[in-house]
Structure formats: structure tokens, C-alpha cells
């Protein structure tokens, strides 16, 4: 049976301290030890490593009555820059962050849903990174890593898109393709893993240890955390809530099965529901998914009765599908994210809350909160930046065998002259 | 946010060592440290504590070439006796185990499904424990604890049956009622938690770290383990897979919702399916659930076409509902347990395996195993005995503050003269 190795634990301790710094803000070593439950010695070692790597700096020195002076530590936002990229089926969205994961610049572009050439997608990613970098006035040589979320089945250790059904991709080495052009480490993962890391670090994770965040867009899925750990599953495929059943033999889902949740709650599913209510409804003329969802939001604001019916049916589907998630996992919190949620949450959530008691087992209902995510900006891009920061800290640690003091590694920055490319 | 305390970790380390002893058989301290990933010092401390408490004894002393003599340790089966009790809606089933969880004696009785008085159920439990104790020729004073699985929502810390829908129980203090009569610690939990602990310790847990075990009986549910930890959920309600949707607005489920998995895969659900296929089928005349399921098995063996149709439809429902579980959790193993599974697995599993690829996402299918559980005997009773053993070890540890050596506690045995009751 797989067991934690000492190396795994060292990484995890490192991430615990990092997470605590985000949650607590500027902190003393004692506060970090208390919050993480790690020993003062372990915290001291990691803080020394982070200080040497320039990731932390000393924000203040406090002299309490009777005690020794205490250093208050904080992440140094200017140690570097990180780019988080959200590649979806219809768009690419990138954000440049400082090392404290504050957003500095943003870029986005539409992807042609019918283009599936990996070079086309990679080119889109590079263009959008470029515009985010320009928007943020970022010095390119300060970028220490790029995190890219890819839809479908991704293998984060190898950076391979194992299977992306919408593009019919099999084993596309997306990380290698990007690293050929971008002279910094690239980390590839799946959006469900990114949104749950965001939620753990910057959302309800400050209040609860177990949670799901439901991502509503073209596809739908759930990022899941149990007892403070992100649920990846054996092959990084956990969270395919979009492909659990709402109705056996129901609507055709694009995964090949019938009746999946996604066929009702994905943006094309909303279109199907509206067509069932009123096949002639003018909103159905919007051919692009995001335009359609925006038009639904506008129509709801104007009190359109067919769209009101659509919202009511969609809330009920959502309550039923979230009920399944809560009944199985008995989690105390579900948050909603993604562009469909951004556009429609104010109409969906009140009705959803009314419906939930009909779908959640009585023992799992008290204390259950369901709300739009409070994670700022694009939760996928932010989560990918957080993963990239974790990777950076791990490399920092690997460069420092016990007893030696690590130094900032100049290769973590971009040397443009050496690479001669456009980032 | 909730964090592990040092106390939690000490319990967990203790259980890790115990689990390793079950998995490895007689082991040296080094082997236990290697298998658990715990430090040799931690293992040495726990082994000393277990030896002092009489839980372990030295099976052999080995002299390897060049090395120090090494003690090979094993659980002492004769340190005590544990009773595991499976209380279901239609029966009570009890097994007496030695401390190595070898079964020594068994007892069972039917419960009247229409009787819901707690005293009636408690009396049934006591009678069945008594017959298991007699069957095993167990000396009553050697019993160190009784573990009782109760259906519904259970709070294991207080031993309260918070809600048992089939009996309409609310906040029945089942542990207190039993401890009034049984002069040993009683531990109460839910069957889904018991079956997954059994599976982790005595089933596929020797091969995988994450798994689900699906319990098929009157009700259905799933015990879930993720990365070697049992999933309890916030209120010990995790695993209510029986109350996830197979079909929105489908068959009425006794939980009040329509279309739950249990309405198709619980024993009464099988009856409904058969009535849909052939409302006049003679098997439907069996009024007791277990007789009905046994008659279905007999009819399948005889090639009855309506029952063959029932098995085919049931396999398909099961594949769909297991597909949801696997798509959400991306676990590598699902096992089947419970009396419906015992009776019908040989007819359900082959068809289920044929159906599964239609319901499981391609990334979660390779390497997925679905099979009847290999856990011997009643997995609920065995799991409850294992929990009771964990509780016993925790008490052993609590009685030994750092630096002192714990001694066997005579109160862990039953002093019949003092209590004068019938156990
Ligand atoms: Zn699907
Ligand atoms: Zn139900």
C-alpha cells in the first residue's frame, strides 16, 4: 500500500506554512506553529529556507513585555511573478500575480470551439500570457513560473493532457510544448483541482476543512477537499460530478452516457432546457455560449417568463445534483464558481436554497452552506498560480540539502537574451 | 479551521501500528516502522505500551547474521474478547472475536420490522450477544468491549442514535441503554463506517489506499476510504450513496425523495423491479425480505426468465450508480458486501462488469476493480469489533501518561459478581 514518504511530508509541511501565511497575514514563527500544528523546530527550518530563498521577508520586529523580540514574517510579493492560465473550451484567460498572489495584469481571448489543433491552442495560450504580461507592466525576467489549467484528463507530474474529449486530444505533451517557448517551469493541471485549491486558500477554506466547489461553465464539475486535503483520485480524475446521473436514460451527454448532470447544468444544457420551455425564444439565437448565458441574465433582470422558468428548473436540477454530492460526502460547504455561476448565481441561489432540503438527508442539512464563491477574480487562474508557487517552493527546498543554506536561483527568472522568444 | 492535535495523531499512530500488525502478521519493530512510515522511536514507544497492556506478545526472537537479536511481535489473541454486533432493520447478528479478531462464536435473531420500541431492539441485541457468547464458549469476564452498529444517523462520540428513519427514532441513547446492562465499554457506530474499516483492514485495503465498499441489504450505502482514512463527513453521515439520484422524479424512496439509488437496489427495490417485469411472479409471495432475496437466488439458479430479467436490470442500475461513485471519487476499487450481495453477487457481478464501461469516465476505468468483498463473515460485526479494539487501545494509552508504564486494567474485564447481569 502507498504510504507517505518523508519527502512527501516535507512538501506538505512547506505548503501548510505557506497556506497559514495566506490565511493569517504577517505572522510570527509561534503563530505559524500554532496554526499549522507543526513543531516549532519544523516551522523554524522552513522559515529559514523561505527567508534564504527570498520568499519571505521580515515585516516587523515586535518586543513584547518580558519576551524575546519576535519577527513578524510575510510573503515578499516582489520576489517574483507568476502567471495563472485558465484554458477552457471557448476561451483562454490569464492573470499575472505577484508572489503574494495579488493580481497585477489580465488578458483573455476567445478560442474557436471547432479548432482542435494543439498548436492553435498553444498559440492562444502564448498570446494571452503576452497580453496579461503587458497589461500588468510585468518585467518578463521576474516570472518564476506559469501554471496552465487544461480541460479534461491531465497528468500533472508529466504535464500531459491525457485526454481532452472536446478536442479529441490524446496524450498531448502540453507542458513540453509550452516550456519549449517559455523559459520558465510550466505546471499543468485540471481546472477542478485549481478551483478547490483557490477555495481552500482564499475562500471558505478559512472556515471549513472539507468542502466542494462546483464549477459551472460549458462543462460542469466539482473540486473536492476532505479534511484539508485536495481530492485528486487515483488518476487525477476525481470531481467528475458533471458525469454523475441526474436521470438514467435522460438527455444525451457529450461524454457518451445519457442523463449526466452536465447535460442539464452545462451551458448547452441550459439552452436545451430553454428550448423545451419555448423553442422559439429569441435568446436561443445567441450562438456563442457566453453570449447566451449573458442574454439569459439580462432577460431574467427584465422578468422574462420563459427565462424565469429556465432559472427555476435549473435551480431544481442544481439542488438535486448538489444533494447527491452532500449526501455522499457529508461536507458542510458547497460554493459555486465559473462563468455561468458569475452570470446567474443571483437568480439560481435563492431558489436552490429553497429546494435543497428536499434533496439533502436530514443529518447532512444542519449547518450546510451553499453560496457563490468569494474567491476573487478567475478562481482557475488563481489556483494554477498557487500550484505554481507550491512547485517553486518545492524546488527551493530540493536545492537545499539539510545543513546548507539555499540561495535564490537566477534560473528561476527568465533570461530573454538566451531564449529569444516573445514572452 | 480544525487542525490535528497531538492527541489525534497519537491515536492515529497507534491505529497505524495495529493495522500493520493485522496486515503483516508477526513483525519486528523495524518492519512496523518501515510499513507505517512512522519513526522507529514512535513505533518503539507504542510497542512498549502494547506489550505492557498485554495486547502484544513476543512470538519469536530472531538472531540475524551480524545484527542484534530482533523480537517478532504479534497480537495476543487471548488478551481479551470483543463482541461485534450488526443491528439491521430486520435482524440482529453478533460475533464474538478474540483480540486478533478471529471469530469464536456467532448468534442471530430476526427483528420484527414493525416493532420500533428502543427497549425491544435493546433486548434483541442483548439476547443475540448472549447466544454468540454461549456459541463461542466465551468466559464473560474476558470481554473487553462491545461494538454495536446501528442503522441511520449515529453519533459515535456520544453513542446516540440521532435519527433512525425506519424506526422513527430521534436521539435514542443506545450506548447508555446498553452500558447500563453490559458492564463493559460499548461503542456505537454506523454500518457504513464498520464495513469500510473491515475492508481497509481485512479486504482490498492491503492493496489500495482509497476504496469504496457498497453495502446491499434493505437499505444500501457506501463506506468510503480516501488515502487510507475512513470518510466520516462532518456529522458521520458520509456514504449515503443509496440516497443519490438514479432518476430524478423516479421511484418513491422511503427517505421522502424520489428516484434514489436505494429505491432500485435495496431489497424492496428489487421486489418493485420484479413486479414491473411480472406482477404475478410467485417469488413476490415471499413476504420477508431475506426470504425474497434467497428465492430470487434459487430462481436464478434454475434459469427463471423473469428473475434473469430482474438480475439484468439490477446489474444495469448497479453499474450506473457505481459509475457515479467512481466518476466522483476516482477510486481504484469497489467491493460489494451485505446480504443481498452475498446471495446475488454471482449473478450481478459479471453483467455489472460488462455495463460499467458505459458509465465510468475513460480516465477512471483502467485498473478499476469491482468485486465481491473478501472480508470473512459479517463485515459490519467485524468492523465494529475493530473499532472497539481501537477504543481499547486508546484507553490503554490514556492510562499511561508519558514516562509511566501502563498496566493491564482489571476493569477492562467484566466482574460478573459486581454487576450481576446476564452477559
Ligand atoms: Zn456525461
Ligand atoms: Zn432516498
From TrEMBL, chains A, B:
InterPro entries in the record: ATPase_NBD, ROK, ROK_cs, WH-like_DNA-bd_sf, WH_DNA-bd_sf
Basic and acidic residues compositional bias, start-end: 406-423
Sequence segments annotated as region (Disordered): 399-423
Coiled coil: none
Gene3D superfamilies cross-referenced by the UniProt entry: 3.30.420.40, Winged helix-like DNA-binding domain superfamily/Winged helix DNA-binding domain
Family: Belongs to the ROK (NagC/XylR) family.
Annotated protein name in UniProt: Transcriptional regulator
Organism of this sequence: Streptomyces dysideae
Amino acid at each position: 500500500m502507498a504510504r507517505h514518504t518523508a519527502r512527501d511530508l516535507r512538501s506538505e509541511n512547506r505548503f501548510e506554512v505557506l497556506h497559514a501565511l495566506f490565511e493569517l497575514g504577517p505572522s510570527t514563527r509561534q503563530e505559524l506553529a500554532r496554526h499549522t500544528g507543526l513543531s516549532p523546530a519544523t516551522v523554524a527550518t522552513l522559515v529559514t529556507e523561505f527567508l534564504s530563498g527570498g520568499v519571505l521577508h521580515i515585516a516587523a520586529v515586535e518586543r513584547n513585555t518580558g519576551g524575546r523580540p519576535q519577527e513578524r514574517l510575510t510573503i515578499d510579493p516582489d520576489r517574483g511573478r507568476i502567471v495563472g492560465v485558465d484554458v477552457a473550451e471557448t476561451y483562454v484567460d490569464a492573470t499575472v500575480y505577484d508572489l503574494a498572489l495579488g493580481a497585477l495584469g489580465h488578458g483573455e481571448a476567445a478560442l474557436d470551439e471547432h479548432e482542435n489543433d494543439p498548436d492553435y491552442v498553444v498559440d492562444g495560450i502564448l498570446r494571452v500570457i503576452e497580453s496579461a504580461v503587458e497589461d500588468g507592466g510585468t518585467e518578463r525576467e521576474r516570472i518564476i513560473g506559469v501554471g496552465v489549467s487544461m480541460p479534461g484528463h491531465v497528468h500533472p507530474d508529466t504535464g500531459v493532457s491525457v485526454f481532452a474529449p472536446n478536442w479529441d486530444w490524446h496524450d498531448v505533451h502540453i507542458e513540453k510544448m509550452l516550456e519549449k517557448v517559455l523559459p520558465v517551469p510550466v505546471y499543468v493541471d485540471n481546472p477542478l483541482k485549481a478551483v478547490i485549491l483557490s477555495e481552500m486558500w482564499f475562500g471558505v477554506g478559512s472556515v471549513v476543512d472539507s468542502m466542494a466547489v462546483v464549477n459551472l461553465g460549458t462543462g460542469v464539475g466539482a473540486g473536492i477537499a476532505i479534511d484539508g486535503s485536495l481530492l485528486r483520485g487515483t488518476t487525477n480524475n476525481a470531481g467528475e460530478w458533471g458525469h454523475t446521473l441526474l436521470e438514467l436514460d435522460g438527455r444525451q451527454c457529450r461524454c457518451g452516457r445519457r442523463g449526466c448532470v452536465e447535460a442539464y447544468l452545462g451551458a448547452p444544457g441550459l439552452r436545451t432546457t430553454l428550448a423545451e420551455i419555448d423553442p422559439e425564444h429569441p435568446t436561443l439565437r445567441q450562438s456563442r455560449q457566453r453570449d447566451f448565458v449573458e442574454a439569459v441574465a439580462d432577460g431574467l433582470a427584465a422578468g422574462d417568463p420563459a427565462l424565469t422558468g429556465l432559472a427555476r428548473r435549473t435551480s431544481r436540477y442544481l439542488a438535486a445534483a448538489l444533494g447527491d454530492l452532500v449526501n455522499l460526502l457529508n461536507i458542510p460547504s458547497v460554493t459555486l464558481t465559473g462563468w455561468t455561476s458569475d452570470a446567474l448565481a443571483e437568480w439560481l441561489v435563492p431558489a436552490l436554497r429553497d429546494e435543497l432540503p428536499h434533496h439533502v438527508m436530514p443529518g447532512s442539512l444542519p449547518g450546510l452552506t451553499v453560496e457563490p464563491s468569494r474567491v476573487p477574480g478567475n478562481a482557475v487562474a488563481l489556483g494554477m498560480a498557487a500550484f505554481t508557487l507550491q512547485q517553486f517552493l518545492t524546488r527551493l527546498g530540493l536545492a537545499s540539502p539539510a545543513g546548507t543554506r539555499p540561495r535564490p536561483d537566477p534560473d528561476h527568472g527568465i533570461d530573454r537574451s538566451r531564449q529569444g522568444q516573445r514572452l
